[in-house]
């Protein structure tokens, strides 16, 4: 039996095309997915990004699905949140072919049940892997059919209906699509809005000729920052490869932290539904739950990862959720993540008043943070224990292990240390009152981690 553990991740399937993923294997994944969801739905909706391998692989997946008697609805080129829209609005399970921000040699499959409900290791992905490893059973009945459907305009109209920009002043906004799917969706979503787009790298190109489509890496927003300053824009937006994440820079070209965006959008959602629940993962700034509570909302803390966020949103009926990685989840979008909707909220908030974005977001940026710092270690467990031992028992220190190790220190500073699930890494995030305190605590923790 093949061992697929290297490409079947916690939330998706991802690997190097031609080495770990090919059409024959993807066809088996499609058939296994059909077996999983056959009792629930008559068809599967499939979309794909602009990578060279995506059309062939998505067609192979469709062949696998129809081989098990289910129909397929293809939506062609799409962002991941556009696929979620199709899954939600059509009430069908879905599959999106993308490797997000990974280099061009990679591709992958993100799957969901009807209503954009996630499929992860504990919700079907492990079962799909086992089915493929053991051999997909043949289906003797009639094959399913394949039809095409264009949902881009409906997706755009749905988003515009959720955020009212009718009262906004005209905004000049630089958008860096990174040669990814933002170049496909942004022109249609922003059409007719009081927004002058200054486009960067809108040409769909899965080789990413200008920079990696990962806006959380500071190196990849340098061009955007420069262009915002050059043209005197009100804001800048950067999307990742499959355009489900959006990163924001202000009129000075300075990054706005995803925690500040989470807090800003949460306040807007709470204005529509006072007393609502807002989910935040444990690496977002502690300013997020503070601001949510101050505006009458109920903050709920979760582990990192979209499956945990979505499950907690379903359990609590939360109206919104945000992560430090610039994933933003909306109850009104089937609890799925959409950076595009978060971007519209930011632009609406900016356009409703006359001040600059830096002033608007200042109220939502209360603390200094390190960002995620990775350390390669030989023994993740041993280094985690060493850090825990160094702080356990100290006066006023609180420790919890909801996700990795979170240490709250007297005076308000805190850090989280988490092991990577796929690499020999420990990931450190630190927050404190100011930059000097962040740097001091970071150095203190890293001295133990890297000893």
Automatic annotation (TrEMBL):
<keyword id="KW-0597">Phosphoprotein</keyword>
<keyword id="KW-0413">Isomerase</keyword>
<feature type="domain" description="Alpha-D-phosphohexomutase C-terminal">
    <location>
        <begin position="372"/>
        <end position="446"/>
    </location>
</feature>
<protein>
    <submittedName>
        <fullName>Phosphomannomutase/phosphoglucomutase</fullName>
    </submittedName>
</protein>
<dbReference type="InterPro" id="IPR036900">
    <property type="entry name" value="A-D-PHexomutase_C_sf"/>
</dbReference>
<comment type="similarity">
    <text>Belongs to the phosphohexose mutase family.</text>
</comment>
<dbReference type="Pfam" id="PF02880">
    <property type="entry name" value="PGM_PMM_III"/>
</dbReference>
<feature type="domain" description="Alpha-D-phosphohexomutase alpha/beta/alpha">
    <location>
        <begin position="8"/>
        <end position="134"/>
    </location>
</feature>
<keyword id="KW-0460">Magnesium</keyword>
<dbReference type="InterPro" id="IPR005843">
    <property type="entry name" value="A-D-PHexomutase_C"/>
</dbReference>
<dbReference type="InterPro" id="IPR005846">
    <property type="entry name" value="A-D-PHexomutase_a/b/a-III"/>
</dbReference>
<dbReference type="Pfam" id="PF02878">
    <property type="entry name" value="PGM_PMM_I"/>
</dbReference>
<feature type="domain" description="Alpha-D-phosphohexomutase alpha/beta/alpha">
    <location>
        <begin position="154"/>
        <end position="253"/>
    </location>
</feature>
<dbReference type="InterPro" id="IPR005841">
    <property type="entry name" value="Alpha-D-phosphohexomutase_SF"/>
</dbReference>
<dbReference type="InterPro" id="IPR005845">
    <property type="entry name" value="A-D-PHexomutase_a/b/a-II"/>
</dbReference>
<keyword id="KW-0479">Metal-binding</keyword>
<dbReference type="InterPro" id="IPR016055">
    <property type="entry name" value="A-D-PHexomutase_a/b/a-I/II/III"/>
</dbReference>
<feature type="domain" description="Alpha-D-phosphohexomutase alpha/beta/alpha">
    <location>
        <begin position="261"/>
        <end position="366"/>
    </location>
</feature>
<dbReference type="InterPro" id="IPR005844">
    <property type="entry name" value="A-D-PHexomutase_a/b/a-I"/>
</dbReference>
<dbReference type="Pfam" id="PF02879">
    <property type="entry name" value="PGM_PMM_II"/>
</dbReference>
<dbReference type="Pfam" id="PF00408">
    <property type="entry name" value="PGM_PMM_IV"/>
</dbReference>
């Amino acid at each position: 039996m093949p061992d697929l553990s290297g490409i079947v991740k916690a939330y998706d399937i991802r690997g190097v095309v031609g080495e770990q993923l090919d059409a024959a294997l993807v066809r088996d994944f499609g058939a296994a997915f059909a077996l999983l969801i056959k009792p629930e739905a008559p068809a599967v909706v499939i979309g794909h990004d602009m990578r060279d391998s995506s059309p062939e692989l998505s067609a192979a997946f469709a062949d696998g699905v129809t081989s098990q008697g289910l129909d397929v609805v293809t939506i062609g080129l799409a962002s991941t949140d556009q696929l979620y829209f199709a899954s939600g609005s059509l009430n069908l399970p879905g599959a999106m072919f993308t490797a997000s921000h990974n280099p061009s040699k990679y591709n992958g499959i993100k799957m969901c049940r009807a209503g954009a409900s996630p499929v992860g290791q504990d919700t079907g992905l492990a079962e799909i892997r086992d089915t493929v490893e053991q051999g997909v059973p043949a289906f003797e009945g009639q094959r399913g059919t394949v039809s095409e459907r264009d949902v881009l305009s409906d997706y755009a109209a749905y988003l515009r209906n959720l955020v009212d920009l009718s009262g906004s002043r005209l905004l000049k906004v630089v958008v860096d699509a990174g040669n990814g799917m933002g170049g496909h969706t942004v022109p249609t979503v922003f059409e007719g809005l009081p927004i002058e787009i200054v486009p960067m790298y809108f040409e769909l190109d899965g080789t990413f000729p200008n920079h990696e489509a990962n806006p959380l890496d500071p190196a990849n927003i340098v061009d955007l920052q420069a262009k915002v300053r050059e043209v005197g824009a009100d804001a800048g937006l950067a999307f990742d490869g499959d355009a489900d994440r959006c990163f924001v820079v202000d009129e000075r070209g300075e990054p706005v932290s995803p925690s500040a965006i989470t807090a800003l959008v949460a306040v807007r959602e709470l204005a529509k539904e006072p007393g609502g629940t807002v989910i935040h993962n444990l690496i977002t700034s502690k300013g997020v739950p503070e601001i949510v509570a101050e505006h009458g909302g109920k903050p709920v803390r979760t582990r990192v990862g979209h499956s945990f966020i979505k499950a907690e949103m379903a359990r609590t009926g939360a109206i919104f959720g945000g992560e430090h990685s610039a994933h933003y989840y909306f109850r009104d979008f089937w609890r799925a993540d959409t950076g595009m909707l978060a971007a519209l909220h930011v632009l609406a908030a900016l356009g409703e008043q006359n001040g600059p974005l830096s002033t608007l977001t200042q109220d939502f940026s209360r603390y200094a943070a390190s960002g995620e710092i990775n350390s390669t270690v030989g023994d993740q467990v041993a280094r985690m224990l060493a850090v825990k031992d160094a702080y356990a028992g100290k006066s006023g220190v609180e420790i919890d292990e909801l996700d990795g190790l979170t240490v709250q220190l007297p005076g308000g500073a805190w850090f989280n240390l988490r092991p990577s699930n796929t690499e020999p890494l420990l990931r450190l995030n630190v927050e404190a009152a100011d930059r000097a305190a962040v740097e001091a605590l970071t150095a203190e923790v890293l001295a133990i981690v890297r000893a």
